[in-house]
Write a structure and sequence with these properties.
about 130 residues, single chain, alpha/beta, Rossmann fold
């Protein structure tokens, strides 16, 4: 099964944050699951770090590929298919990072690890 980590879930995993539920931890740790990390999450982390919204992430903003390799997570580039799907998603939700992760989940047949209720509003299967 493919699991796509929402950006907060990725950071919570990397920093062993208690906000990531035991259920999510078990899903992510399951060796039968392929754990995907969107390029949109890298973009979001880098942007928010630059703006001072993620001041305590150390070198994650500059060394994310190294962290992903260490965790054995698979980077998910943004394809034309993903971009077209994200742009075509209906509804008022304007967050470009969420819209891309939603589109990638649909295109890659992945469940999203997230606490954000907007994913369910778009019919995206989630792991909480």
């Amino acid at each position: 099964m493919n699991l796509l980590l929402d950006t907060h879930a990725l950071l919570w995993w990397l920093f062993d944050d208690a906000r990531l539920t035991e259920s999510c931890r078990a899903w992510i740790a399951n060796p039968e699951h392929r754990i995907l990390v969107s390029a949109a999450s890298a973009w979001e982390i880098s942007t928010k770090h630059r703006l001072g919204k993620l001041p305590d992430i150390g070198d994650v903003a500059t060394q994310l590929p190294r962290y992903l390799r260490a965790a054995r997570f698979t980077p998910l580039p943004i394809s034309l298919e993903h971009a077209l799907r994200a742009g075509a998603l209906p509804g008022p939700h304007r967050d470009p990072f969420d819209r891309m992760i939603m589109a990638q989940a649909l295109c890659e047949d992945a469940r999203v690890v997230t606490i954000d209720p907007v994913f369910r509003d778009y019919g995206i299967p989630v792991v909480e």
